[in-house]
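Reading a protein record of the kind used here takes only a little practice. Think of the row as the fold of the chain written in a discrete alphabet. A record is reproduced here so that you can trace the correspondence yourselves:
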Amino acid sequence: MPATNPNFYSDLKVNTIQLGELFIKEDLFHNVPADWHIIITDIKGSTIAVNNGQHENVNFVATGSIVSVLNIAFKHNITVPFFFGGDGATFIVPGLIVGAVMQALILYKDNIRKNFDFELRTGIVPVNLVYDRGYKLCISKYCTSGNFTIPIILGNGLSYAEKVIKSREGESFDYMAQEGELDLTGMQCRWDKIPPPENTDEVVSLLVVAREEDKQAEVFKKVICYIDEIYGNAEKRQPISVPKLRLKSTFDRLGREMKVKLGKIKAMELLKE
């Protein structure tokens, strides 16, 4: 079977209708190509690490896995969908870059283990396996504001892939670390903590699971509509806005960036920052 266009996701139409309405528009969702791959990273024992005050390190390490993958995609002029999970991330990537991505993540995993004492688990599942097991994996591209777009998924394909990867924990796979340097260009965070919107002390994060795969769209639409009704539209309730951003560069934060990027803190590089 010939390889699918690696620009499948890049070429998807950007949808700007209300998110709740998007979920029920079947014609705006497309099957992820069967020769693409699902890659998942997560930090083992992240809950304990967070409880021990390492919340920022956990988030920072997870973000680094995203940066390493996106930089590879960028070099190939490809856009890949990804999802940030706080202690890890999920990617859907074409075969063209899957080898380079896995090798980079293995190198990154080794760097994180040495410098943060975290175990970054990494796993991969081909999309065709998801389809062979009878699961759906449909995707759409949604624009929240300006030029910022996010992927929207319907189907239990990613949940199945996560179960497969967790069941394989400890098994080896064909991708091995090679000599080279990680490209973590753009890996930095100079912003202070952002307060909740609307001068409140409440930030709500919901994990919604539909019991039946074929009723996901309907369930998700209802949830989004209830959120809009209770908290207002997305523009009103979003916690991040330009007026709320405050720069905060500390040596502790800069040092953490150096560890992720270079594997160790270099005094002269730190002074340059």
Q: What stands out?
A: Residues 242-247, 264-273 have pLDDT under 50 and may be disordered. The two ends are 49 Å apart (CA to CA). The longest strand covers residues 37-44. The beta strands are 14-15, 30-31, 37-44, 82-84, 88-93, 119-126, 138-145, 148-154.
